[in-house]
Write a structure and sequence with these properties.
Number of domains: 3
CATH architecture of the largest domain: Orthogonal Bundle
Number of strands: 19
Distance between the termini: 69 Å
Strand content: 15-25%
Strand order of the largest sheet: 7-6-15-16-17-14-18
Number of helices: 21
Bound molecules: flavin-adenine dinucleotide
């Protein structure tokens, strides 16, 4: 079976490569040419129109502005405001470090990402920041090994696993050329639908779609794929979305799906690697936390660490706010003219006296949990084809706290793949030791207990990876991706939130009003700043 899949996949890589290079080849509704031209139109028009409303913001460049949270959204916003000439911006951060969900732990002199880790072609603002602040190198991330069978764990490449999905949906397609064309057609169709529904736009959040389009998207992402007969894209989307903790495709709103899986991203992940572009997914040589810390340091941002904001009160006789924050064991207070808040809005409802409309919108958010554990083990007998594994049998089973993803950090940074990785011929750190140091991802809908997480991780390491000597070095249980239901999304809740930006002297930023990625939150900041009418 493995040999057949390998032959089939090699043939499909060749066909897909030929399809991509040989641009004259027409493949039905959407030839590669057609997909390309749709994508080019999408790219060419990006930014050419906007139907977002204009919003209010700080009244003067000398207004006292408080930003709550020194995560990616807060740091990026402070940097943008300072760059635009705002002179009085203070960031309050409850933790003792900058970065929010971008946390990089050093272990054996190797950076291990416990939060933000990947970037992809849509991350233009992030790539620009990495260069501007000289925050390390942007490196290719080896594509994952996919494990689809728990009883007989067999490593498959991403492509092989996609072919298996195609085989289960269309057993009649046995010819590899036809299989490749079929997948390519589905991609072309997705690009076309995206373009028809949303047109072209700048950043991640599209302008409010028409009510007809919203009603057509009142469904899960899987229902959308089935409705348009492009379910074959399921494998690509589970890797690009579900494995990242962004929701099971039979649960998450089709709108979130289309915000994240843009035509550019989908086309890029489906393009076979080349010697020039080993992988379209990237990682940072020094980690993401370094980027945010460097922006704060080099731009001399005023960040108050270990300073949780406890209460934000509106002043009765003027437009301002009184911010109460904790510092060094006692409560402090300061006046501000404008508030920008980034943590999950639902939690901030206990801190800020939001107006009733905002309060009602934010109360509808819910989140799940993604846990990352940094651990050492011996090299297991069952090593994948690359230093990153997606255990789709666990993802699909929806078993609480099962291991979804494994990433071996050092080998990822060094791009050790295929036989070089599987054979375990290289040490896993600059110290020369053959001890594997990895980050494991466990997903759950209910807040997991540490005992359950450890039990399931031990079981996984022993029975799937066939490794021993588990030593847990660190663990983080994250409140992950504050999100809205399918129907709330189809009612246009993200645009309703945008419409109240600035109305009561507050901007709402961060993942709970956009999407759970650093690209999403910086794109949202840029959108706010574009729509802000500054009267001074
Ligand atoms: C395991 C994991 C993997 C991820 N992988 C990726 C990835 O590969 N690519 C990607 O782009 N993104 C990834 N993300 C998502 C990305 O990290 C987040 O979307 C991003 O950090 C959101 O930024 P934010 O500023 O909105 O929120 P946060 O990063 O959550 O920052 C909010 C900040 O507010 C602070 N805060 C909260 N309450 C208060 C208070 N009362 N007073 C003061 N401060 C307060 C918090 O301490 C925190 O620092 C990942 C996240 C996790 C957890």
């Amino acid at each position: 079976m493995r040999a057949v899949m390998a032959t089939l996949s090699t043939a499909v890589i060749c066909v897909l490569t030929v399809c991509c290079i040989h641009t004259g080849m027409v493949i039905g509704f959407s030839s590669v040419d057609e997909t390309r031209s749709l994508l080019e139109q999408y790219n060419a028009h990006e930014g050419s129109h906007s139907s977002f409303p204009k919003i209010k913001g700080p009244k003067s460049k000398h207004d006292k502005i408080a930003i709550i949270g020194a995560g990616p959204a807060g740091i990026h916003m402070a940097y943008k405001l300072k760059a635009a000439g705002y002179t009085n911006v203070t960031i309050f951060e409850m933790k003792s470090f900058i970065g929010g969900k971008s946390v990089t732990r050093y272990h054996r002199r190797v950076p291990h990402e416990m939060g933000t880790v990947y970037a992809q072609p849509d991350y233009t603002e992030i790539y620009r920041l990495v260069k501007e602040f000289d925050a390390g190198r942007i490196l290719p991330m080896p594509s994952p090994t996919v494990w689809i069978n728990k009883e007989h764990p067999t490593p498959l490449s991403n492509l092989q696993s996609n072919l298996q999905i195609l085989a289960s949906l269309r057993p009649d397609i046995t010819n590899v050329t036809v299989a490749a064309v079929y997948i390519q057609q589905a991609i072309g169709k997705y690009v076309g639908l995206h373009s028809q529904m949303f047109g072209s736009y700048e950043g991640e959040l599209m302008p409010r779609p028409s009510s007809v389009v919203l009603s057509q998207l009142n469904m899960t992402f899987l229902e959308f794929l089935k409705f348009h007969d492009i379910e074959v894209l399921k494998g690509l989307i589970v890797s690009a979305m579900t494995a990242q903790g962004y929701g099971h495709i039979d649960e998450i709103s089709a709108l979130y799906g289309m915000m994240w899986v843009t035509p550019r991203f989908l086309t890029a992940v489906a393009t076979p690697p080349s010697p020039e572009v080993k992988s379209v997914v990237k990682i940072l040589s020094k980690g993401f936390q370094f980027l945010w810390s460097e922006i704060a340091r080099q731009f001399n941002l005023n960040v108050k660490l270990s300073s949780p904001v406890r209460q934000v009160m509106r002043l009765k006789h003027s437009d301002g706010f009184y911010v109460k924050y904790w510092k060094c064991g006692r409560l402090h207070g300061a006046m501000f003219d404008f508030i920008i808040t980034s943590p999950t809005m639902k939690f901030m409802s206990n801190v800020i006296n939001f107006d009733p409309k905002a309060q009602e919108l934010f109360s509808r958010t819910f989140n799940y949990y993604y846990t990352t554990t940094l651990a050492d083990t011996d090299y297991g007998a069952n090593r994948g084809l690359s230093p990153q594994d997606y255990f789709t049998f666990n993802i699909n089973s929806k078993e609480e706290s099962s291991v979804w993803v494994h990433r071996d950090s050092y080998s990822s940074l060094k791009y050790i793949t295929d036989a070089n990785y599987t054979s375990g011929m290289y040490p896993d750190g600059p110290d020369g030791l053959y001890t594997q140091s990895s980050v494991y991802y466990q997903f759950s809908k209910e807040r997991p207990s540490r005992q359950t997480l450890t039990r399931k991780l031990k079981d996984h390491i022993l029975n799937v990876e066939k490794a021993t000597n588990l030593k847990i070095k660190d663990r983080m249980i994250w409140n992950y991706f504050p999100r809205y239901s399918v129907s709330d999304m189809a009612m246009g809740i993200l645009w309703d939130i945008f419409d109240i930006q600035g109305e009561h002297g507050i901007w709402y930023i961060g993942s709970s009003v956009s999407f759970e990625s650093v690209k999403s939150v910086v794109d949202y900041n840029n959108l706010l700043l574009r729509q802000f009418v500054c009267n001074n």
